[in-house]
From TrEMBL:
This is Uncharacterized protein. CDD domains: ALP_like. It holds the Pfam family DUF229. InterPro entries: Alkaline_phosphatase_core_sf, DUF229. Gene3D superfamilies: Alkaline Phosphatase, subunit A. The gene is 106061504. It comes from Biomphalaria glabrata. One of its GO terms (cellular component) is extracellular space.
Length: 614
């Protein structure tokens, strides 16, 4: 176990201490199911072996003893000009086996009994072709990396991500996986790891690119393709690593939700074609999109990563798999992952895949809604995603100063940009010619000691996400003049975010709460001329619920002066679904705040379960 209790040394940032199993939180959480039940009525009767699809004869004799079964397959890929699924032509029918093209990656296999019109079996496959031409190029790039930069070590990287899960929720829910990582593996738990943006995309930019949205605004926008972004897997590609990126919910992928996505696949192996095909399959609706045939979708995507590792067991690889569908709307569903991650991590260990690999288990941000958000503990959890770094034990023993730095950094202020910097540092570990970081890139490598005097401004972490020095929340009278002033400024800011030609001007329906953030230590001294408040309000039309962070220049005085400065943080969270309320806008930055004017005559209230946008 490579995590120690937070040491209260002379740190510029002291995190609030929040127990994962605090009774005040447990009383507000519902229990999630821990298993996924899948429909097994249409059993798979084919399998892949040595580049061929083979019909399982023993299964067909058992299931269809009086019938002749024939199958056909269809290759799945991306349209080379647009971010859209392309279906290949159906193959000829076969009754025993069929040899696949050597470049086949994703396919659908459908089988029939000759006397039946409807399919009796359907199966999706995600393959990892091992092509000689690609291998030759990767070998050349690896030799170039070694000749030009002479890194001391070559470690692979596997990143397993869960959407919207806090560190504490992971600890509460993963009763097998968390103890396995902390007690049996060499894992460092970053206890002061902080999100850098409101939703998935800005956190992705920091995690995979070491950059902020502000750094892109002069040359990139949401109508641009993501191919032009300098992302970490580009560096691994150039260094000769085989690379993979997989997501389970393609419509809300970090680089695709209301964006153009990638024109060219960003990694050597990219799961988007099979994910799109699965989402378009009407048969999956019966199982809530959580199954692929008789198999849980979690297993399907983890099996894809496992096949990738099995295909290149002795070659350096970079792989990221990110799960959104189950945890996006309900963080309690992270418990479902426990058995699957516990099993696959043990399998990867037993096969030697982790012998020369950094395994990172992470999330993009914490939960952004729910009953716990009204508590101080919940506010902290919403800002603290998960970051577990698991290294090979031999690596830590060979480089004890790295192990010492990582242990120290578990109790230092860190963020996604530091993960990005760590990956680049590891790619050219102690190289004779280290990779030069762009001045627009952020982050410090966790292989080095993070400074004790680091602040949110240094990272940078926007103030509305900064937890340094925060101790508790003090409720305020929602009818007070101060509360009304804060809410008025938040409402004005919300309305400034929308186009009056498209969206209604929102009015205040009710003030749900106003709280003051109580500070301690150096944070209290630094902000003695500034107060921090959290404001939650409901607006009309549409009954949207918003939460904002507001800063004032002191007080509160008995009588508020006219020139009292009120600053609303730019990231304002929408805590419930906007559904079709924002259908008239394609601007992802506007949609959470927009109630389309054309809906005013057909007043539609959004009273569904709160959720965050991707």
């Amino acid at each position: 176990m490579f995590m120690e209790d937070t040491v209260h040394e002379s740190l510029a940032c002291i995190f609030p201490h929040v127990e994962p199993h605090d009774p005040s939180i447990l009383n507000l959480l519902h229990k999630s199911q821990r298993n996924i039940e899948c429909d097994t009525s249409m059993e798979e009767i084919t399998y892949i072996n040595d580049g061929s699809i083979i019909i399982n004869e023993s299964k067909t004799k058992t299931l269809f003893p009086d019938s002749i079964v024939h199958c056909r397959y269809q290759l799945l890929s991306m349209n080379p000009r647009v971010d859209r699924l392309a279906y290949g032509s159906w193959s000829n029918n076969f009754t025993n086996d069929a040899v696949l093209p050597k470049e086949a990656e994703f396919l659908l296999v459908v089988c029939y009994c000759k006397e039946k019109v409807k399919a009796v079996s359907k199966a999706y496959y995600a393959l990892v072709p091992d092509l000689e031409e690609a291998n030759a190029m990767k070998s050349t790039l690896l030799r170039k990396r070694k000749a030009e930069r002479s890194p001391k070590e070559t470690l692979s990287v596997i990143m397993v991500g869960l959407d919207g899960v806090s560190r504490n929720q992971f600890i509460r829910s993963m009763n097998k996986t968390y103890p396995l990582l902390m007690n049996n593996f060499s894992t460092f738990d970053m206890t002061m790891y902080t999100q850098t943006g409101k939703n998935t995309f800005p956190n992705y930019l920091s995690l995979f690119g070491g950059m902020t949205e502000e750094s892109l605004q002069n040359w990139w926008n949401y109508s641009s393709h993501s191919d032009t972004l300098d992302l970490v897997w580009d560096e691994f590609n150039k260094a000769g690593y085989r690379t993979l990126y997989a997501e389970d919910w393609p419509d809300v992928g970090g680089f695709h939700y209301l964006k153009k996505g990638f024109l060219v696949k960003p990694t050597n192996f990219f799961s988007r074609p099979i994910s799109l095909a699965l989402d378009k399959d009407p048969g999956r609706i019966k199982s809530g999109h959580n199954c692929v045939g008789g198999k849980p979708e979690i297993s399907f995507h983890l099996d894809y990563v496992s096949r990738f590792l099995d295909t290149f067991p002795y070659k350096p690889i970079y792989a990221t798999v990110f799960f959104t569908r189950l945890t996006h709307a309900d963080m309690a569903n992270v418990a479902i992952f426990d058995d699957y991650l516990h099993e696959v991590y043990n399998v990867w260990l037993s096969k030697g895949h982790l012998d020369r690999t950094l395994l990172i288990t992470f999330s993009d941000h914490g939960p952004r809604y729910g009953a716990i958000r009204e508590t101080f503990n919940g506010m902290v959890e919403s800002r603290t995603p998960l970051a577990l770094f698991t290294f090979p034990r031999w690596f830590l023993e060979k480089y004890p100063e790295v192990a010492r730095n990582l242990r120290t950094n578990t109790a230092r202020l860190t963020s996604h940009a530091d993960t990005y910097a760590t990956l680049l540092d590891l790619l050219y570990f102690r190289s004779s010619l280290p990779l030069q970081k762009s001045p627009f890139k952020r982050g410090l490598s966790l292989l080095n000691e993070i400074p004790a005097d680091r602040t949110c401004m240094d990272v940078p972490i926007p103030l509305e996400f900064c937890l340094c020095g925060q101790k508790s929340l003090s409720s305020m009278d929602t009818k007070s003049s101060l509360s009304r002033l804060l809410v008025k400024n938040v409402l004005n800011m919300i309305n400034l975010k929308t186009d009056r030609n498209l969206c209604e001007e929102l009015a205040l329906e009710s003030i749900l709460f106003v709280v003051q953030v109580d500070l301690q230590g150096s944070a209290q001294q630094e902000t003695r001329e500034k107060n921090i408040y959290k404001v939650r309000l409901r607006t009309s039309p549409g009954l949207a619920v918003f939460e904002a962070t507001v800063f004032t220049n002191g007080g509160p005085p008995a009588i508020l002066p006219d020139d009292w400065n009120v600053e609303v943080a730019k990231n304002i969270d929408r805590l419930n679904l906007y559904n079709e309320q924002a259908y008239c806008s394609r601007d992802p930055k506007q949609r959470p705040y927009c109630y389309c004017k054309s809906l005013k005559t057909n007043y539609v209230n959004s009273t569904q379960q709160p959720t965050s946008s991707p």
